[in-house]
Amino acid sequence: MKRIKYSHWMKGAAVTAVVVLVTAGVGGILINDLHMEQVSAAEKEEATEGVLSEALGQQIVSHSAESGKEETVYVIAGSDGSTRSVIVSNQLKNAEGAQTLEDETTLTNIENVKGTQSYTEGSGNALTWQAGGSDIYYQGTTDAELPVGLRVTYYLDGEEISPENLAGKSGHVVIRFDYENRAVQTAVIGGEETDVYVPFAVLSGAVLPLEHFSNVSVSNGKVLSEGNNAIVVGFAFPGLSENLSISEETKETLAGNGVDAEKLDGSADYLEIEADAVNFELEMTLSMILPNLFSDIDLGADIDLSNVSEQLDTLEESMTLLSDSSRQLVEGSSELAAGAEELADGAAGAKEGAYALAAGTQQLTDGSKAVAGGISQLADTLTDMMTQLKPAHDGYAQFEQAVGQMMAGYGMPKEQAVASVMQAQGMTQNELTYLATLSGIYDALAANAGDMMTLVQGANEVAGGMSTVNQGAWTLCEGLDALNDGADTLADGSRTLSSGMAQFDEEGIQELTEAFAGVDGNNLLELSERLQAVKDAADSYRTFSGAPEGVDSSVKFIIRTEAVK
Length: 565
Description:
Elements: H1 8-11, E1 19-21, E2 30-32, H2 41-57, E3 68-77, E4 83-93, E5 100-104, E6 108-112, E7 119-121, E8 126-130, E9 136-141, E10 148-156, E11 159-161, H3 163-166, E12 171-181, E13 184-189, E14 192-197, E15 201-209, E16 213-218, E17 221-226, E18 229-236, H4 240-244, H5 248-256, H6 261-266, E19 270-277, E20 286-290, H7 308-345, H8 350-410, H9 414-425, H10 429-447, H11 449-471, H12 480-517, H13 521-540, E21 553-561
Parallel strand pairs: 3-21
Antiparallel strand pairs: 1-2, 3-4, 4-9, 5-8, 6-9, 7-8, 10-11, 10-12, 12-19, 13-14, 15-18, 15-20, 16-19, 17-18, 20-21
């Protein structure tokens, strides 16, 4: 069998008379003179292939484990995306310098492409390589069905046209890439078995010479004009709409907030390149398919919302007790002021005033103790709520960070970045709104936690102080004027406290309760389960042609379509 090497697909190309300069990002890719007549067709094809490999490769973070198995599936396809042949290249990493390496594979026509080490076949699909302390690089072929199917359709001036007939034509051209996700797993979500698609991310790219193309755009991605060419890189997430399971009610809600849910529901499965063409000519396109791009994102994991409703009930009860106690404080302080005033009117009424004062201070003591107890219970309840809400706060912060990274990396508007991250995570707008609401509640509680502890300490001090006031009420005949002034101040303060408590209850606690009442807790729990199921599906898809149990393995797919000329 003739050895076929595809290493230049991932490493770029160095071609005589063709200068390809690749810097830190996609924006630094320069392609010069690809249009020159003296450059051969083979050289132009190799240069285009190298640039696309670099452009797509710089959009991802590759698997970088020091040991295990890295698998790259190269697919040679027709210009319509139909599979012609599949060649799989494997690297067995030998970090510990072992003499033998165990492997499993369903490939045929296996050939060592970087050495002379041999292998022996075991039971089933097992292989034992005589590694001699080195890594093993081998390739083979397979006729197994790909987990993601590709179909490329061409349109000229609104009419579908075959790629053969499109060559050399002029007009408005649309190149549509449709991706079919065939990798389905089963997970239990909301107590029911549900199909979950492996969250493949697909990046497709093409180089469009400006001598043939103008007004180039792409539906999901970006277009860079470099030298004499436009480099188009687009992305899609086949199966995303099924994973999101967007309901009609959710679509209406999103539409009310300016989000085109109908487009979101289907645009994740395809991308379109549009341009005005003169003498249409297109080199190959490249598509990278990755199953684990989102496996490290843990948005929504470990969010326990099961006790939030109970905590809100406790919070309402505590607020009611606190309001009642503050009213008692108002009544007690008013009686205290009245008793002090009687004492100040004259010595003849001192005894009767002292009795009234004692009665007032007793009621005030009871009220202040009740206030202290209510505030303490409220503080405990809010602390428990903060513990429950913290994972949601952290998850939303991670979501905003992911949006910021996408805005910085792709230069896309915030709304598009938000929609892309939501697509990747299997999130709906309502679910994102719920997480944002819970995160805001957590921030509000955290901002006022110190004030609440100060209030608890002050209430306890008031309760203890009022007991002392009650014991000394019989000795307060002297200084009745000062007592009268103080009693008036206390009455005014207690009324302010009561009014503040009522406002806090109405504008804070009640609004919090009503806001959460509009959120279906079951939906939030289902969101957490759905996100975890999607992550599990990404984690589990680690090989196409096989790998031993327990071996750290990764896989990516590269589809190359033939040129249209």
